[in-house]
Structure formats: structure tokens, C-alpha cells
Amino acid sequence: MKPTKSFRILTPLIMVILILCFFSGVVAAQATPGEQYKKANENYQKIKENYDNARNKFEEAKNLFEKANSQLAKLNDEKSRDELKQKEKDYLLRAINFSESQLQVMKSRLENSEEKGYIPFDAIKIIDGHTAQLEQLKATVEQANSTKELGDANKELKKIVININLETRYYMGIVLNQRMTNFIAKADNVTLNFTSATTQLKERGNDTADLEKQVEDFKNALIAAKESHAKTKELYATHNGFAADGNVTNEKNANKFMEQGNKQQRETLKDLKHAGNQVIKFIKDLRKLVVGGGVTTTLTTGGATTTLTVKE
Amino acid sequence: MKSIYIFIVLVIAASALGCVDKNQAETTSGTPARTPVSPGESAVTPEGVPSEVVQTPAPGEDIYGTYSDIATLDNISSDMDMQIALSNEI
User: Fold this and answer.
1) Which of A16, A68, A146, A163 is the most exposed place for a label (fewest CB within 10 A)?
2) Whether A207 contacts A240, CB under 8 Å
3) Which of B12, B17, B80 is opposite residue A173, by nearest beta carbon?
4) Chain B: nearest CA to A197, how far in angstroms?
5) Does the reported pTM lie above 0.95?
6) CB contact, 8 Å: A158 with chain B?
7) Which tens digits make up the pLDDT trace of A266-284?
8) Complex confidence, ipTM
9) Domain ranges across chain A
């Protein structure tokens, strides 16, 4: 092949590749909900992995310390005391790391683009405040030489951890509530779509008894979820034990509120899972019917329309 | 020779636009793996009530993103159970 001829072919080829490269970005940017979920989940999993590692190390150090405490505390020689002090120090440092990793999980959840703005106060500021407290405490523990110093550090850690534990449940609870509200709103639209799709198929003479039953089950699960969700929202509106700025004001009240709120949320989640299963089952059965019956129907999904068409 | 070049251009065009292997990618994205559980999560709720397991939809069947939504709710619920249990021996 002559060089001139190969250049004649290569030039348009390179141009085509260059032009297509511009469009490939557009194609790549069109992420499906599944892909978006996968991406968000990947980021979360990285932080969660750190949390799991920190938890394992903490549990290990806690066991070693407790074991040493039961064996060495009775002995009064200097070597035993030093060994116990070292185990206590290790345990405290691991506990601080573990607490920090829990704060990171919370922070990542609150900074997630979808969940941003759900919390009506500056939770990130509170989380960062705890992280700073823990960092300071870490330095104190590292420099501590006496049992008393370590005991004081432990007392301070306990106070911080009580707040972190309560705030984790409260902040995550708010995020969960908002997510549930969104899910319920979405599910209301799904109800309309399912009813419309079932009616279309029925008018065409299809046997829709199973589909109608699923729609009914779905609606009932949704009603139950809405009831428990409304109760949870009432509890969260009062936020007993927590100030309007998200700080714990009364430990006992906050614990009681979280216990009640968590129970209601579990109820709602149970009903939403049941409703979710009905959605998945409905679409599966609808597809079967469409494929088998040779009909066309549409389901609107958040602005877009999914047309289940096989043959007319 | 010319047809080989046209074929190459078509293959490059298809891969650049994401047409090649697209079905496989959709299959993966359509069924997001259930997220690993957080510390407190289990198939049984703390009250001892067995929790319903959400069915994994077939590719293309989760048109409302229900499965992903439920998995997210489950994860957040599990995050709520993250609690630091300090030693009582100090």
C-alpha cells in the first residue's frame, strides 16, 4: 500500500475516533439508577470497611485488656502494673479510633448528595467537634503515665461516646425518615401506574386477578407503612432529649425517644419491604402476561415511560 | 481492503458509544448487589420478628429502583444500630 493511500484512509479514521471520543463522555454520564446506587454504595463501603477494621481492633484490644485486668489487677508488682497500664492504653486508643470511624460513617452518610439537607441543623459541625475532642483525648492517652490519668481519660471518653451513640441514632433516624417519606411518595405514583396498567389489561380481556391482588396487597402494606411512619414523624417533631441544634440535652429522655422511634421505624421498614416485594412481583408478573398475551402496556417511571411491548 | 477499514471504523464507533458489551453492563447495574450488612443488621429484628427478605429482581425488572431504595433503607437502619460498647472494667 502506498503511503498516500494509507494516509487517505487513516485521516478520516482518526477524525471519527476523535469525534466519537467527545460523545463517549455523554454516553458514560448517563448513569442508570442502579449505577448511581452502585457508585454511592462503593464510596460508603470504603468508609464502612475502615469502620469494620477499627471495630475488630477495638474488640481485640478490649478482650486483651479485660483478660489482663482479671489476671494482673490482683498482682501488686511493678511489672504487672506496667503491663496492665499498657493494655489499658492500647484499649483506650483503639476505642478512640473506633469512635472516630463511627463518626466517619455518619459524616459520609450525611454528606451523601442525596441525603444532604435532610438534617435541619449543622450535624457535620457536631461530628467534627467530637472528632476534635477525640483527637485531643488521643494525645492525652498517649502521654498518660499513671493509672489515674488513664482513668480520667476513660471517664472523658465515656461521656463523648454516650453522645456519639445517641447522635448516631438520631441523625441516622432523621435520614431514614426522609428516605422513607421519599419512598412512600414514589410508591403512591406506583399505585396509580399499577392500577392503570391492570385496568388496560383487563379491558383487553386479560385475566388480571393475580395482578389486582398484588396491587391490593401493595396498597395495604403502604397504608400500614404510612401509619407507623406518621407516628415516627410525631416523635421526631418533639425530639425529646435533643436540642433543636441536634445536641443531647437529656440522656434518659433521648434514650427513650430513640427506643420508641427505632421501634416505629422498624415497623415501617417491614411494611415497606413487603410493599417493595409486591412491586417487584407485580412487574415480573406483568411482563409475563405481556409476553404471553401479546399486548402493549406502559408504566411511567419518574418522568420516563417504560413500555412493555412484545407484539400486538 | 476498504471493507476491512470500514469494519474497523464501525467497531471503534460501537465501542466508543458504549454499544459493545452494553447488555452485560445493564445486567450488572440492574441488579445491584445487596449491600453488606452493618453491625446491627440481621435477618431477625431485635424484637425477634423475622424480617422479610426483598426479592432480587431480574435485570430490567426493577424499573422503579425499588430494590436499591429498600437496600438503602436497610443500610441506614443498620447504621442506626452502630453503638460503641466500652469496657465496664475501668
Assistant:
1) A146
2) no
3) B80
4) 14
5) no
6) yes
7) 999 999 999 998 888 888 8
8) 0.76
9) 38-171, 177-309
